[in-house]
Amino acid sequence: MSVVVELHAAARVADAVKVYGIGETRVRALDHVSVEFPAGRFTAIMGPSGSGKSTLMHCAAGLDTLTAGSAFIGGTELGSLNDRRLTELRRERIGFVFQSFNLVPTLTVRENITLPLDLAGAAPDGPWIDALIDVVGLGDRLRHRPAELSGGQQQRVAVARALAGRPQVVFADEPTGNLDSRSGAEVLGLLRRAVDTMGQAVVMVTHDPTAAAHADEVLFLADGRLVDSMREPTADRVLDRMKAFDTRDTRADVDTRVDMEARDTRDTRAPLTAGTDEGSGRA
Ligand SMILES: Nc1ncnc2c1ncn2[C@@H]1O[C@H](COP(=O)(O)OP(=O)(O)OP(=O)(O)O)[C@@H](O)[C@H]1O
User: Which ranges are annotated Basic and acidic residues under compositional bias (predicted)?
Assistant: First the structure.
């Protein structure tokens, strides 16, 4: 007898469309985006300002709703849930790390880490919490309050909090945006370890090519569309790819390339522009 095991991505969106506003203020922030975030993969989302990165993350995490298309956490379609179930799902199956740490100032480090479990009425898994505290290197700070910690330490608490409930996926929104490079590297190293040792799915929005280089894959958004991806990124290759957004109209990505090729064959004296070397940063 064969057993069919259905494998779901930790999170995914299918044909996602998000429109804000109406009439002249109407903005299509996501324009038919389909993407999967598998377990055991660290995915970075990059793109120019306004390209839809936060919108994609918020819709994938059930913090905002799609105009059309669907978003799933595991096999659960978020659009099928009422507000109460959606809140429960976010609490139980998603970990969040924000740029501004978002710790509760009156709680100790340990209380902050176990807060999502306490809110869910779930008993914390003691050995697991201890192991997390060990990994994030805060064993001697457990009774401290957030104000008594550096920014990097606070963000490490936030990472431990995000992992405390063994969520299906961790969404990190600019997690290193407020940190110096050393603290940022520590936080990214923690997220990397969660992927490598726990098979965690991590999805991170970032503007920083160095941060993105910690990921397994970088997805590039432009004008609400997924326009490129890069496996095994390096900071230099990501930077090159991002520079290409500054020098040409990404909406006409393919058309521009075709135009350039056609022009090159027509007139070899045509001046070189950024479009001609656009493949240099690609995977
Ligand atoms: N609540 C909102 N109401 C109206 N328009 C919005 C809203 N949120 C985002 N937008 C618009 O949707 C588009 C995508 O915004 P989004 O914040 O997702 O981009 P982003 O890539 O995360 O940008 P940034 O890098 O600057 O944070 C932008 O044009 C933005 O102005």
Answer: 259-269
